[in-house]
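Fold it.
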Amino acid sequence: MASTSRTPTRRGRGRGKGRGRGGRGDGSSSLPPPPSTLSLIIEEFFIVVYEDPLVKKALPKKFADYLDGQEPAKVYLRAADCGPRLWTVEVLFDGQGRMYLDKGWENFAIAHGVDFGCFVHFKYEGDDVLTVKVFDGTMCRKYYYSDDDDTDDESDDDVKPCIHPL
């Protein structure tokens, strides 16, 4: 049996200018743009609590960059599976691209058992709302339920926390 050797060819090359999807000369390309030119979409991120859980918390710089030009003065935290309650938390920007959860974070952290070694997962829902899941030091998720007597007209100074099931 006779063997024939073939020289590998690439599609789109040597077929003339502007012809086919990979043709040269027309400036078009079938390849996606490089990652640096794609718009950055940050929907989920986490922080690990290594220092005092009750002081302001830095959020990832990429998330702050994502909000560039739309920096909110406040965000609203919603504990996953803890009812519709939104916790108002003031946001600080340091002028160097860092974003921090500030006033209001302490109340949220106490009510949801955020402590040293916790892993706190955030999901950006839009409209300055972040849904939060808290995992303890064993990497197991903490679950909560809300008190049925909780009312919407309650002030942030009179915090009624979610209660951990027994």
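The domain at 41-135 is CATH 2.40.330.10 (At1g16640 B3 domain).
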